[in-house]
Design goal:
The chain is α+β, with helices and mostly antiparallel strands and about 270 residues long. The chain is built from 3 helices and 17 strands. The strands form 2 sheets. The protein has a 9-stranded antiparallel β-sheet with strand order 4-3-2-1-9-8-7-6-5, with helices on both faces. An 8-stranded antiparallel β-sheet has the order 10-17-16-15-14-13-12-11.
Length: about 270
Amino acid sequence: MRKIYFIVLMALSLSAQSCLMEDKNLFDNTAAERLQAYMTECSDVLTSSENGWIFEYYPEANQSYGGFVYVVKFTKGDVTAYFELANDVKVPVTSLYKITGDDGASLTFDTYNDYLHYFATPDGQNYQGMEGDYEFSLMGVSPDKSEVYLRGRRTNNKMTLRRLKIAPAVYLQNVLAMKAALKGRSHKLVIDGATNTSCKFETNANIFSYSYTIGDKVESGEMAFCQTDTGIRFYRPLVINGVEYDSLRYENSVLSSSDGKVFISWNKIIG
């Protein structure tokens, strides 16, 4: 009996040592070292894109202004920004940025930039400006390093940097062309073959609002969006007739979903 008891104690002891060894291997690096490694990874990814990143930006905590498009290019010390609201989208503004470990990894545009601080700059009517962010938590990098995920420190809005494969000015010119093409009022929203629907689309506010009736079901909603070079992308997936859509594509004067169930045609306004 004593022999069995001794064997059990030995087994428990070896098991405990194994767990301790495993824990030690898991935490060979300190929390500070792991944070530094993560910040280095983020910095390497941000500076790796030759054409920069599409930055779909949402000021104000409820996205009440809709979304706006930047392109940002990073070097080890500078960020060069292009902006859809600039007088000339071919002309960038360069300033400093930093990646720090304050309350977790963060990306901060820490010197004034006419574009990147546009939504945070106070004016005579609003001391908080448009309540935009210039400090962001670095939330992660996609496995293929094509996207970097941010969260605004002020608004808590989730935003994404998407690797750009063409020249920044060309992309923004395409965005502006798409915005011009969509200028007007929707006259028909078709959902899964039903036409008893209505839709309002505000290009100035970048807010998509809709309502529809299918059978006995009446639903309505709205969602902020950013223009893309092919259509629009919503702040978060929009649910229409029980299906989630994160974007709509514009082609032949119609916005449509990838599954072919949602179509929006436009009644153009001249001038």
